[in-house]
Write a structure and sequence with these properties.
Structural class: alpha/beta
Helix content: 25-40%
Distance between the termini: 84 Å
Shape: globular
CATH architecture of the largest domain: Alpha-Beta Barrel
CATH superfamily of the largest domain: Phosphoenolpyruvate-binding domains
Number of helices: 29
CATH topology of the largest domain: TIM Barrel
Largest sheet: 8 strands, antiparallel
CATH class of the largest domain: Alpha Beta
Strand content: 15-25%
């Protein structure tokens, strides 16, 4: 039996695969081998062989030895997320290498900052015919030092299956980082259980479904449509099982591809002449209907933004010169983007996130490599860069994914910035001098168009294309600028300087409106602005009704950045911290230390105000890749919320310890989701008491029950006996009470939190809590609706937890109410049959709403 000796491909501490913080390697799903925690920044060949593949993200490569063993060398854990940043590949596919030849060099410091782990794995991926022996581990090793041996030989080709049964399944790959090592290993492991052949095809390439290397070499990415072909006995069953695995993510989180909502039809006035390029004539009002991108109302004058493409020379001045020019342009744009990331002012948080994403695009190896190839072919740097960008724009368009299509603007923005540096032309498309009431009108706007414009110069945005989740829409919302997008080609007929009204609340724009309409809108904006400024000025004051009843107004928080916004808006605490942001879209659970740090950051931002932290609420529509739950026909009626936590107590205990470690002790209150019985509350409270005593905490910790199902509202008196407070989640309570799945597009529009039946359940919960003197909060969606405030107060709710943006206006409205008035309206509402009747009652009582 032949033996192949492998030397260490890297210097560092040798350890067993079970120590790798990635189940695909730790559980030997990829193959058997060894791992090294590196101290050197170079990966070298562990034996003689041929390079079979190099991963697109440059963090891994596969070598086939002369004996046929295929050896995967994988640098770090989750380094696929870096998309090539920090890695330099020194070999190419098909290249022969000798032991010790340099394969990949990498930035050790950058990976230490950005990667989850640096541990580098060396595994045999076609291991059926091989046995790994003579491992050297639990000590320091040098590059080239013997590390392990592989005994055996490549398995003989399987005899063709007798059965001629063939089956195919087409699936959409929803894994954000494509078919990298971990999901490829999971697929191949299941495919090998089938005696027949399994192939996976996509984009005119086909791979052996039983080979990790072949699957990685397929280059399948998020959104790709793949064809699974199975031959042999029970091919139909095997194909379906493999398709279900791909759909579920093969152990990785999945990012579904959303359906694009149909745009509202253009009005007759615009549609009749939409194909015309003639500008709209003054004197006749034109109504343009589009999609809401950022709320608000604005009056101003159109400033047309025209995209003029500079003429580029195709021929370069030599490869070295053009590579130098491209490198300098990329460095200059990088500095521009870094400055924008650090820039303060309106919309800073959104701007920072967006331009960090642009920095990632700028450093994307796929872009830079494509441009370098064009330069090597004799093209100029500008020509090469534009070709690379447009090539990737076409890929995104061809994916038929509306969300990815909205990222096309980001790619083109990066493209324009670099070309402007290379040509000295282009700059910002927005004029340097803008009137204070400028309404930018364009085919499509880019984030850089808004980056350097003072917000006080912009009144609104109106574009022919774009979407509500585009980065321009996010920037506009962050800057408080109304925006309407996707109004169609009619936007291109708006003449420069035309008077306009943009209504971001309705998704409409009016061109050449009558003077009386303009004047009425100006007055409405002034009144609204004055009211909101006054409300914000008093937002930090306590909130009491006009007759002195104390109503606390808290804010719902979804991640650390929301806490500062909530405090600035006058929130008196965090009434609901959704901790899922820490657990979703990752392959391992967050550590106790990581959770504690995030909770502490939020508590610090709330400046001593209470923080109600909901324990992990997953299951149903929020699966976790690292927490396998049984497949359920009705997941929203299955393992959710506290049911999952009690099924996995170690996960719950780690989260509770992290919450208890927040200073000052007691500032955090614990909220238990999806409670249906007092026994569940007792079980959680016992665990909290165990962990509190273990940490030496003597102060009592407030624990609440979340009322989200009808039975919890009906039995609120029993729950209140075990809980310190109740918090009503009206979103789930409404869907369960009305038997309408809020994720089902056929019925979701009928969900109504002001339905009298839902309000009666709120009333029952309050009555049950009152028997034990427990306060009741509402943290669901209706807490952010001012029309619900008098109803909830009238039913006995004493705390509302709303979205941060509405806190100032909500507090101001509550100060105008009296308790007897609220009680009377609430009692009347409970006698109605529909939510529409309830709304009519509220608006007739308070016409200003």
């Amino acid at each position: 039996m032949a033996t192949l000796k492998l030397v260490s491909p890297i210097a560092g501490w040798a350890t067993g695969l079970e120590e790798v913080p990635d189940p695909a390697f730790a559980q030997r799903m990829v193959g058997d081998g060894i791992a090294v925690d590196p101290t050197s920044p170079e990966l070298r060949a562990p034996c003689d062989g041929v390079i079979v593949s190099v991963h697109a993200s440059r963090h891994a490569c596969t070598l086939r030895s002369d004996s046929g063993a295929e050896i995967l060398l994988h640098i770090g854990v989750d380094t696929v997320d870096l998309k090539g940043e920090g890695f330099t590949v020194r070999v190419r596919e098909g290249q022969s290498v000798r032991t010790g030849d340099l394969l990949i060099s990498f930035d050790l410091d950058l990976l230490a900052r950005k990667a989850r782990s640096l541990v580098t794995s060396m595994v045999v991926v076609n291991g059926e015919g091989y046995t790994v022996t003579d491992r050297v581990q639990d000590r320091t090793v040098a590059v080239g030092e013997p590390l392990l041996s592989i005994a055996g030989q490549a398995p003989a080709a399987l005899q063709a299956p007798v059965s001629t049964e063939t089956a195919e399944q087409r699936v959409r790959l929803l894994i954000p980082h494509g078919l990298h090592a971990r999901p490829a290993a999971a697929f191949s492991r299941h495919a090998r259980l089938h005696a027949g052949t399994v192939t996976l095809s996509g984009k005119e390439r086909t791979a052996n479904g039983k080979s990790v290397v072949a699957l990685m070499g397929l280059g399948a990415r998020h959104g790709d449509t793949l064809t699974i072909t199975v031959r042999g006995e029970q091919a139909e069953r095997v194909a379906k099982e493999l398709a279900e695995l791909v759909i579920s993510g093969l152990g990785d989180p999945v990012h579904p591809i959303a359906e694009q909502p149909a745009a509202a039809p253009a009005p007759e006035e615009a549609r009749a002449t939409e194909s015309s390029t003639l500008p709209f004539a003054p004197g006749t009002e034109v109504l343009l209907k589009g999609t809401i991108a950022a709320p608000g109302l604005a009056v101003g004058h159109a400033v047309r933004i025209v995209d003029e493409q500079p003429e580029l020379s195709e021929s370069g001045r030599g490869v070295a010169e053009e590579q130098r020019r491209l490198g300098e342009a990329l460095a200059s744009v990088r500095r521009e983007l870094e400055a924008l990331v650090e820039k303060e002012g309106a919309g800073a948080a959104a701007r920072t996130e967006i331009f960090r994403a642009h920095l990632s695009l700028l450093e994307d190896p796929e872009l830079t490599d494509a441009a370098s190839q064009e330069i090597s072919a004799g093209r100029s740097a500008a020509w090469a860069w534009r070709a690379a960008v447009e090539q990737h724009v076409k890929v995104l368009h061809d994916l038929d994914d509306p969300l990815l299509a909205e990222r096309v603007g980001d790619l083109r923005d990066i493209g324009r910035r670099v070309i402007a540096q290379l040509t000295g032309k282009g700059g910002s498309r927005v004029p340097a001098e803008l009137p204070r009431d400028a309404i930018l009108v364009a085919d499509e706007l880019l984030p850089s168009d808004l980056a350097a414009v003072p917000p006080d110069r912009l009144a609104a945005l109106c574009t022919a294309r774009g979407g509500p989740t585009s980065h321009v829409a996010i920037l506009a919302a962050g800057m408080g600028i109304p925006a309407v997008v996707a109004v169609g080609d009619a936007a291109l007929r708006v003449p420069d300087g035309a008077a306009m009204i943009v209504d971001g609340d309705r998704g409409e724009a009016r061109v050449f409106p009558p003077n009386e309409t303009l004047e009425a809108t100006v007055h409405a904006i002034a009144a609204r602005t004055a009211r909101r400024e006054a409300n914000l000025a008093h937002a930090h004051e306590g909130c009491r009704t006009a007759d002195g009843v104390r109503i606390e107004v808290f804010a719902n928080v979804g991640r650390p950045g929301d806490a500062a916004s909530a405090t600035a808006k006058g929130a008196e605490g965090c009434g609901l911290l959704r901790t899922e942001f820490l657990f979703l879209e990752r392959v391992t659970a967050p550590s106790e230390a990581e959770q504690a740090a995030q909770y502490q950051e939020i508590a610090d931002a709330m400046r001593g105000h209470p923080v109600v932290i909901r324990t992990l609420d997953v299951g149903g529509d929020k699966p976790l890749a690292y927490l396998p739950l049984p497949k359920e026909e009705n997941p929203v009626l299955g393992l959710r919320g506290v049911r999952v936590s009690l099924r996995h107590p170690d996960l719950l205990r780690a989260q509770l310890r992290a919450i208890l470690r927040v200073k000052p002790v007691g500032v955090c209150r614990i909220l238990v989701p999806m409670v249906t019985s007092a026994s569940e509350m007792r079980a959680v409270r016992e665990i909290i008491e165990d962990e509190r005593e273990a940490l030496g905490i003597t102060e009592p910790i407030s624990v609440g029950a979340m009322i989200e199902v009808p039975v919890a509202a009906v039995l609120a008196d029993r729950l209140a006996a075990e809980a310190d407070f109740l918090s009503i989640g009206t979103n789930d309570l409404t869907q369960y009470a009305l038997a309408m799945d809020r994720g089902n597009p056929h019925v979701a529009a009928q969900l109504d939190g002001l339905h009298p039946g839902v309000l009666r359940l709120v009333g029952q919960a309050v009555e049950g809590a009152r028997k034990h003197g427990r306060p009741v909060a509402v943290c669901g969606g209706i807490a952010s609706d001012p029309r619900a405030a008098p109803l909830l107060i009238g039913l006995g709710v004493t705390e509302l937890s709303a979205t941060p943006a509405v806190v100032p206006d909500l507090k101001a409205f509550i100060r105008t109410l009296t308790l007897p008035q609220c009680v009377e309206v609430a009692r009347t509402a409970l006698r109605f049959e529909s939510g529409d009747e309830v709304r009519a009652l509220v608006t007739s009582t308070w016409p200003g709403l």
